[in-house]
Amino acid sequence: MFQEVPNKIPYNDNKAAHSHVRGYRHMLDLFSVIVAEVAPTWTMSAPGFGLMGLPFQAILDWPMGTPSGHAFFLDPRVNAKLKAVLDSWRDKVLKTSTSQAVITTGVGGWLSKEAVAAIEHDANLDGGRRYTFEQLFDCDPQGDAVHWGFKSWDDFFVRRFRDMDKMRPVGYPGKPEWVVNACESTPVAIKSKVKQHDRFWLKGSNYSVADMLDHDELAYDFIGGTVYQSLLKITCYHGWNSPVSGHVVHAKVIGGAYFSERSTNGLFSEPVRPPLYNQVYLSHVATRAVIFIKADDPVGLMCFVGIGIADVSTCEIASRFSQGWPQPVSKGEEIGMFHYGGSSQCLLFRKGVKLAFVDEAVPGNHDRNLAVRSPLAFAYAED
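Request: output the structure for the sequence above.
Response:
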């Protein structure tokens, strides 16, 4: 997989391209350094567009796009070993003060002028008053001028709004027909009449409900229904908030594959075009949390799926909703969060539930995030 050339941009257009990782042993040597001391840094890939420096993703991006790599990263034995490596990185670096080295105002720091400007840009969504980072999020730049009170990379990543109800009010709290956005995110896809089984690895927005939900017995309620998917930017709030009021009736985390991406093998000369091409595929194979919520009519039973999509991204269901079902939940209430890395969300609705999505939730209509807890769709029963 280190000798094959990936059929994806930018490698497929460069005949002289080669992997900077020389082979398996070199890869392990690089892993050993990252696990002990490297935390994700802030980078700017293009003017105004900030990215997280994902060290494992950088090492594996080449083999991930090859036919051999596609098979390799789906192997359960490989994923068991990768999980051990990533868990060690989490415990030694991401959750500890070692990672504070990147939570600074210096170059590559997450509190640098460029990073803070990007975070403020993505968090100020209503077009009115613009708030500063300090006004938006819990932090302490006066008491701690270096790290602003953040104790680790994860502490920064899961930062909370200073005043959630002010910054992100719940849309239509007393109206069960209104569904709100569960995560602060950019729309990726809306797909109706989804199938029990479908070829989710092919081009397009094909969702396979049974595979997404790990063949859970409740999955069958969503055959013929609708899936809404959106992508969370690394700069944004990473909590999950209930899209409806009702009762959580079941919840679980499904273990998945690390570093797997959709293969173009057998799809003629179609090149892979990052970054959104992979989101539908990952909703079926990556580690993900599923939370089933029984709401009042017209929504009824629905499902939230939180998808960890980069490096050590972890899905944490709030403890109250991970057991003792049914558990009451209010629209806009926190039900869990992502840790450490990139992420995506899906909302699944039953067949017969019609949805009128707000304009901002339609993929391609806007390039900004849709605020968490803001109105997403108006639900009504099919005649």
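The first strand starts at residue 41 and ends at 46.
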